[in-house]
Design goal:
Blueprint: E1 23-26, E2 28-29, E3 48-49, H1 52-60, H2 64-67, E4 72-76, H3 85-98, E5 104-108, H4 111-116, H5 119-127, E6 130-138, H6 142-148, H7 154-166, E7 170-177, H8 185-199, E8 203-208, H9 226-239, E9 245-249, E10 258-262, H10 266-282
Parallel strand pairs: 1-4, 4-5, 5-6, 6-7, 7-8, 8-9
Antiparallel strand pairs: 2-3, 9-10
Helix pairs in contact: 1-3, 8-9, 9-10
């Protein structure tokens, strides 16, 4: 829909599936942390902030007729909310002015930005319609997070996420199947399900671990099979005791597409997973390894 007046992007450019129809402004490039052992999304991108004047130029070349029809804006790249507060407020004010009917502004949010910015700062962002944050928890288990080099502890970031939710900013939390391999699977499942139950985010997404950066990730924790990964998804769904959590497991990495509300649709989702487990056992697929765990780096 936007051609001649599209914003200026550097690639690769990532956004959540639910932001497919959002207008994207790349206010940062790369990831402010960029040290996770499992993630190669921004490995070839040096982190930088896009100056406000460049963002302004991108906006001003858009026809008013188009701007009046924009309802959702997504701020890229990874962890765009790490942008210094004064500058981020200036950008949000400008976007609200130039897109007067925007209803939602969203962004990826890393744990360091979540923790660094005060609740008062988050309140100011919320006033300016930044009301959805995509947060990669990955695991509720600190040993798994250390293996992933996430640079955070799940119990430390949890209270801050709850506090931010209480001021009206929603979270879409992402968790990763297989993050603990075989050896840490039970701890990963238990602590992740507990974290989600206690935080009760608005949205929950489940992905499967792609080994995209660190080739020897599974060396000490044993590579999970297809059956291990589906079993892990079943255990997590079974043990989440939240309410009204909009749940999706529809990433290209997943073996089973799941869609529902937790815990309201738990029984239906478990039946679907049980059917899948029965199918892969009958077809000798349970002990097979995913193709992307055999890829060359």
């Amino acid at each position: 829909m936007i051609i001649d007046y599209a914003p200026d992007y550097t690639y690769p450019l990532y956004r959540p599936p639910s932001e497919a129809y959002s207008l994207i402004f790349q206010i940062t490039e790369g990831c402010s942390y960029n040290k996770c052992t499992f993630c190669g999304m921004y490995v070839d991108k040096k982190f930088s902030l896009k100056p406000f004047e460049k963002i302004k130029i991108e906006v001003e070349r858009m026809p008013e007729k188009y701007r009046l029809n924009v309802r959702r804006i997504f701020l890229a790249d990874g962890d765009a909310v790490s942008y210094p507060t004064e500058g981020l407020i200036k950008i949000l004010d400008y976007l609200n002015d130039r897109f007067p009917y925007v209803e939602r502004i969203s962004s990826y949010a890393g744990p360091h930005a979540i923790m660094k910015k005060s609740i008062d700062e988050w309140v100011e962002f919320k006033k300016r319609k930044l009301n959805l944050l995509y947060f990669g928890l990955e695991s509720g288990n600190n040993e798994v997070l250390e293996l992933m080099n996430k640079g955070m502890k799940s119990d430390k970031v949890k209270p801050k996420v709850i506090d931010i939710q209480e001021i009206g900013i929603n979270f879409s939390v992402m968790i990763i199947l297989g993050a603990g391999g075989k050896l840490l699977s039970d701890a990963h499942v238990c602590d992740t399900a507990l974290w989600i139950s206690q935080v009760n985010p608005k949205y929950l997404g489940m992905l499967t671990l792609f080994i995209r950066r660190k080739k020897d990730y599974f060396d000490k924790i044993q590579t999970p099979t297809v059956g291990d990964l589906i079993t892990e998804s079943r255990k997590i769904v079974e043990n989440i005791n939240g309410s009204g959590i909009i749940f999706r497991s529809n990433h290209i990495s997943n073996f089973v597409t799941l869609k529902g509300v937790l815990k309201e649709d738990r029984d239906r989702l478990l039946n679907q997973l049980d059917y899948t487990l029965e199918y892969i056992r009958k077809n000798d697929l349970f002990d097979k390894y995913p193709d992307y765990y055999r890829e060359e780096f």
